[in-house]
Specification:
With 232 residues, this protein is mostly helical. It folds into two domains: 199 residues, no CATH class; 32 residues. The protein contains twelve helices and no strands. Helix 4 packs across helix 5. The longest helix has 25 residues. 22% of the residues are buried.
Length: 232
């Protein structure tokens, strides 16, 4: 019944069903990333990285996606260290890293096949893996700008947001919304409007400034007590 409704809507609008689903997934993940950054205080990479990573998780599976994403990041970091002593143009350096990442992924597949673990990393379809490889330049630029330690933290928090997004967009509830109640995606507009006006502390800042907040609260209470005593 649900599929019939979607097919009817798809025929009326002359838009493929997969396009409707994809266009529902992208703004949902973007909203989750915005919430994670501005309310929870996650310091992920640019909004593009969590969106791509979440979609790849949906296609490859969470475990396979985490493995490939980690290989891409660590290969980028190691290759950058190896090439840092050599003078070369920016695009040549990035091209080297792309090449090494791809050869390493191929080597992992070949190695696993010898140990009868060929199904461990199922790269079919190949396109989602290529999407993760395209994040090399984003990782490289972040390392140059912020350093490896901060990039590692950003990577872990990006994986956290991407994993949360994966569980949401792969849930039966989300599928039902897309297939049966597409109009509910309009709720993303008021959610983003609320996030745009968010001026409160992020959750990650509450623990960092806990002592300051407590001191301010104690000062306010002490001032209130002093005023009461003066009135008496």
């Amino acid at each position: 019944m649900i599929l019939d409704n979607v097919n009817n809507l798809s025929n009326v609008l002359n838009v493929p069903v997969y396009a409707m689903v994809l266009l529902g997934i992208v703004p949902t993940i973007a909203t989750i990333v915005s919430f994670g950054r501005h309310v929870l205080g996650f310091k992920s990479f640019s909004i593009y990285v969590p969106i791509i990573t979440s979609i790849v998780f949906l296609d490859l599976g969470l475990v396979y996606g985490l493995v490939v994403a980690s290989i891409v990041l660590f290969t980028t970091l190691i290759t950058r260290r190896l090439l840092i002593k050599f003078r070369m143009h920016y695009f040549v350096r990035i091209s080297f890293i792309y090449t090494i990442v791809c050869f390493l992924l191929f080597g992992v597949l070949v190695t696993l096949s010898f140990f009868s673990y060929g199904e461990l990393l199922n790269f079919k379809p190949l396109f989602p893996v290529i999407l993760l490889v395209t994040l090399v330049e984003e990782y490289f630029n972040s390392v140059v700008k912020d350093g490896e330690n901060k990039v590692m933290l950003m990577f872990l928090e990006t994986l956290g947001i991407s994993t949360l997004s994966y569980f949401i967009i792969s849930s039966a509830f989300f599928t039902s919304v897309i297939l049966n109640n597409l109009w509910l995606l309009l709720l993303l507009f008021p959610i983003n409007i609320a996030l745009a006006g968010w001026e409160g502390l992020r959750f990650s800042e509450l623990s960092r400034f806990k002592s300051v907040i407590l001191n301010e609260m104690n000062a306010i209470e002490a001032e209130a007590d002093t005023k009461k005593e003066k009135k008496k």
